[in-house]
């Protein structure tokens, strides 16, 4: 791939900061290693996508640092744009799977608006659509032409819109489940909530706190990205690198930190119901590519 030949479209309207990129390479590497450790220790394979998202961030910011002296290199621009864009949908996939496991763990499927059999399939399908659209948009932008860049941004905006819709529905869904189980607790939930165990001890409600926090961070980030791309290539937000670090890099780092602090594996077991959820998810995920 070569450089963009158009003067009307600029890959960067600033010179990418090496210190900022290096800081986030380091912090994302640290938290990703921690997530990998938690995942392998507890065999919580449903967090594979989450750890992969961290790897995407590290590589994405490595290429961002390389862009400092290669601001006209379309290949470097495409790699860092695509990887940083696609990390949050990977986080979302693990977040969706976590709620299904939590519902099964609490014997609370009757309190869920959707059966566990379909919960993961529905939300992960939306996540895959968003992932593919954002990836395709990044791929189109790698053409290096002004028209390709503009079309790619529009496709990415569509993917972000899909992500926002499904994530917003998920937050509502999770909140309604939380309300219902607080109102009509199961035997497991009644003895293992925050009121019984306290904030310092892992419980099903600390998992919910983690899911809510991560969801809010991802929602804010997605709204920012949607507004940023809607502003055009010469817009105020996209022309100032600091905003992408505050409303994307920093929020995604917080997402990884909060999910590490309230990691589901500290509560969810790997026996009976976990195995059944794995089987149901494998059936649903096999159907996703046909969407």
Automatic annotation (TrEMBL):
It holds the Pfam family RTA1. One of its GO terms (cellular component) is membrane. InterPro entries: RTA1. It is a multi-pass membrane protein. The chain crosses the membrane at residues 20-38, 45-62, 74-99, 111-135, 155-179, 209-227, 242-262. The keyword Transmembrane helix applies. It is found in: Membrane. It comes from the Eukaryota. This is RTA1 domain protein. It comes from Aspergillus ellipticus CBS 707.79. The lineage of its organism: Eukaryota, Fungi, Dikarya, Ascomycota, Pezizomycotina.
